[in-house]
Records
---
Amino acid sequence: MGTTQLETVPEPKYWHLKTVLSEALDTDFAVGEILPNERDLAARFGVARATLRQALEQLELEGRLQRRRGVGTTVAPPRVGVDVSASRSDWPGADQHAWQPTECTVAVPPAAVAAHLGTEPDERTHVVRRVRKGHDQPVAAELLYVPAASVPALPAIDAPSGPALARGVLRELARLEPEGQDRAVELGSAGAVDAKELDRLPGAPVLVVTTRYFAGGRTAAVSVATYRADTCRLTFGAQGDLEISHEEQRRAS
């Protein structure tokens, strides 16, 4: 990547620099390659380091770059396609490979979740925490709220807490006959716990997917899954699995 001087442009200088850097990532760097340090990059483009940092932060937000402690800034792999369409295989416990349970507690859920479940405001539910990985890195963290009525055989399971109890809850939940589900997606920001799970800073942009699972004529469970907005691309079945390269995006803009 040779020395490039930025011309005067009507858009913010950092935004123009971001576009130039994005083009360079497509042609001059490989996935996982470490970028030169900020001083060298700023000198190559003839900009202040503050301008460079703004451009790098935007590229990180868009999922083009990853900043890793002790490593530096690297070129990010393509976004992970995550199918969030409603299907039987997505029923909690049906696919133990996509999500890995890490913990299970018993607690009063947030009011909004209790309303979805139709439970009393102070009624405690099983709360299963799971993580999902892609390209060997965490891409999503989930809290799955399961009322006792959905897993009546659970008290007979000798697993007082932790991952063993989480697997027991999921196993019992998988025995139910699904009657459908609905799903909502919204933009949010990572809380402290999710940020730690996802290796992000608190407040980082995330995609929050809330799912209600129905069985036995009622809501059997509610999932609140937090996906990294910089590494995930949500799809909705085969028709939604659309790939758009960065080059195509630039031509369309």
---
Amino acid sequence: MRQFTNSEALSGIVHEALGAGVHVVEVDRLRGGSKKGVYRVHVDGSRAASVIVYSWAGGENFWPAAEGIDATHPFAPASGLAPFLAAQRRLDGLGVRVPGVLLADDRRRHYPADVAVVEDVAGGTLETLLKTDPARASNALSELAAMLDVMDQQHSQHYGRVDVLERGNRASGDSCEQLVLERAIEDLAEAAERDPRIGSAAAPLQDRLQELATRVSPRRQHGLIHGELGPDHVLVDASGHPVLIDIEGLMFFDVEWEHVFLQLRFSDQYPALSRPGLDPARLDLYMLAMRLSLVAGPLRLLDGDFPQRTLMQGIAEHNAKEALALLVQ
């Protein structure tokens, strides 16, 4: 059984961030994370009643280990203190609201893993607000759309994660559409082994992917995208402003990749976030690729001991049906 951290283990890093006079009162491990631990640490002796601690300890990562991964690949697992800090700096510099960093430590003097102590945005997620307070959520959606516009206007001739490009490295591959196609074919093969419905339709699904890819024209400019922006990755602060979290995957890429995910996760609210000028050919290819990714990924996660098993199984089931439905369009 996995052993997670506790108040005693976190006290040193919290003291360094907030001062020796601060006392840790209680620690809650927040649900949902699959690559890092997210802890709300309640304290006294500080102006803030609580902070959030991100821990990138190996035991916090529920994904099965994979060998031979190219760390510069845009779809390589985006996890760690370095990509988090690079993304936080870039977004904060653009005026896109993200949690403030109180302390970042990769020297492991007070904690046996890379760790960050950040502002606790305690207003809950946009996902919850859409259900409980639609009017307030509508204002947050409008601000989120403005944030996305700012990000879309950041352009690069090179694609890749922000931290990779900041180091002067080049992401692998020939183009965004080629990377998406290659990943989709891999996801299809993996899903076909695990889901009989996908397995029986593997050949026509691959033909469809190849057909859609031939319709995509070359592009030399890429926008800044979050990479996995659902309403659960947007917090709403006490003043009603949206705050982006889980930002480690921030990268320059085709903005259509972001908007396909936004369509899936925001559903009826997506029109508030849509933008003109998206490439229909890319949207078609990326939608099928995203559906296949959301079959293979959750099923891969279930190979391990990820606790929210019903949720992951439901995601895989839903997206398998949607992927098959795209064959008849």
---
Amino acid sequence: MRLLKLVPDVTNLPFLKYRNLGFALAIALTLSAIALVALRGLNFGVDFAGGLMIEARFEEPVAVDRLRTEVNALGAGQGNLQTFGDPRTVAIRLPLPPGDDEAVQRTVTDVQKKLRAAYPGVEFRRVETVSGKVSGELVRQAALAVLFAMIGISLYIWFRFEWQFGVGALLALVHDVAVTLGLFSLFQWEFNLPIIAAVLTIVGYSLNDTIVVYDRIRENLRKYRKMDMIPLLDLSLNETLSRTIVTSLTMIIALATLVLFGGEVLFGFAIAMLIGVFVGTFSSIYIGAPILLWLGVGPHSFVPAEATGTKAERVIP
């Protein structure tokens, strides 16, 4: 029985032919994502925004504007309402009432009682509370976690290969994280602590894919010392293409299943990971590899000269 091959052994796609277009697209996506986050902001969950969140599921779809007016009339503060997964489920965010835990519980009980009276059959799935001080600390810690992860990974690539590779890896990671955050800002998906876990996982996935490509590039730099850099980079990308496609495809299938059938709790994490797989694969090819060419990487720049005849040479015109 012949094994199924998603990528034929003789694949020779000219990735670097479109390097300028790919890199320009990456820059445009990154800048657009940063602008979206700066202007529109992220839809922070209770983890980061602080306050009180009540998830309510109604028997029939409700008009969010009407429900917002009714919630604001309860005297618990200005509510921020958003459908959560489907038109029947609404996340109601309210400011924390002054006082202790008993005051919070009284507010929750009062809101639930009045909503039950207005909407018989409503179901309250969860209630979360986070103080403003705790939410602020979580925002800072999450931002530092992502920043230190990206810097640490770039330093590792620098020492593992050369500084040019570290620059390429850092730019690829910035692109992956920025595009993911930009899409969360565009669609106003809830941004909470599980999304930070997804972003850190995206950083690790992108690094893994980039290192596989970089390792093959370094190996080919030593093996084919007279080959021009563009054919060598194309050769390296094609040699790792099968592994990249198989890895990405298996993750896409698993994550798409979670997005469709995992429910509201897993949706944010799964959609962030799904976006990260796509942008991470793209950045490994059209940021990680071309940047080496523009930074002047070649066999002459950092690979020690080998004795003549110890390695077979291959020249591709």
---
Amino acid sequence: MPADEPTDERLRVMPWWLVLLGLLLAAALGWLVLDLLLTEADRATQPDTRATLRVDAIRTGLTVVAGTGGGLALLLAARRQWITERAQRHQEAVATRDQAHRDRVQAHAESVTEAAQRHQERQAGAAEHDAAERRLTELYTRAVELLGNDGAAVRLGGVHALERLGQDNPAQRPTIVAVLCAYLRMPAPVDDPRETEVRRTAQRVLTLHLRADDPTHWPQARLDLTGALLVDFDAAGCTLVDADFTGAVFTGVTSFAGATARGRLALGASFADAVLDDLTGDAEIVLDGATFTGRVSFDRAEIGGELLCRRAVFDGRTSFHRATFHQPASFDATRFGDTTTFGEATFLGGLSMERTEFTGYAGFRAARFADLTQFRWTVFGGEAWFEQARFEGPANFGRARFHGAASFDGARLTQPPQVDQARAAAAAAHAWPVGTTVERLDDDWLLLVDR
């Protein structure tokens, strides 16, 4: 039974015989009372008294009959009132149920209308989305086709078309960056100035949107330029996240000045002149196998992650002046072919230069070595200057070779350096740390001995 359905029982119609029975009962009751009173009156001895009593008996009997009839009439009136109230309640319940039903019908109609409207809106949105996706796909396909055209001017238009597509559709930027990187990784024609211009433009598009201060910054961009040919690549001020330049060939002047590196920065590539001044970030920087044929500068760099520069070649002048290395730095088996300076550099996480070769001047003036420092088997082909340097951790120069003058004048060491079998040219003037034992090995070499 529904909650709003009335719980009153169905009304039954009073049968006519029940009313007749009530009247007969009233008459019978009146007759019985009259008979009883008349019998009592007849027992009176005085005729006058008997007549009076009979009159009273008749009056009383009629009164009983009238009272019984009045009671029945009152009962019928009460029943009529009760029936009227029940009918009223029933009508009210029916009206309430009808109103609730109308409300449910109205709510259902509104719900259906709203659902239909939402469905229409979804259909319209889906249609609009599909149209936008189709348009986007067409624009992307057209731009890629332009980039693959034989004409340099058409390819240049393809680069700009991809850039505009990325500007208008942020979700497509990673894909567009990947396409431009793939284009730069493709083999380039030799001595083709038009293709060089197209590649320069693609490079500028990539680096422009990597600059954090640029209003068109693309934070999702990840550069994968492994094996690419890059001409005058300028990433100054860019934010590089997991950028990979392994095996790339950088011609002209390459700049990462003021760049911020996050995650991992792989620079195991071939460079001419390179400027990495003020490079910052917490990225692991990998220079393993890199070659630098021109000048290289890491001045004031703040390298927060580990630096791996093993088996690298620096043929030109190299400078790490006032650079700070917060994590271990390794230059193992690296060759520095010209003047190299680490003046006032700070190595907070340790330094390893085992089997490293300095062909020219090696300057560590006023450098700070806060942890273990390794120069084992290192070859200093020219002058090696450690003046005013601070060695706060162990320093190991075991089997190092000093072909030129070595100076530790003013250097401060918390403990004597390990110099096991290190050698220095006898003809040069040296200034060793206090307490260093030097023995002449032969006419050409001096032998440094641990105490």
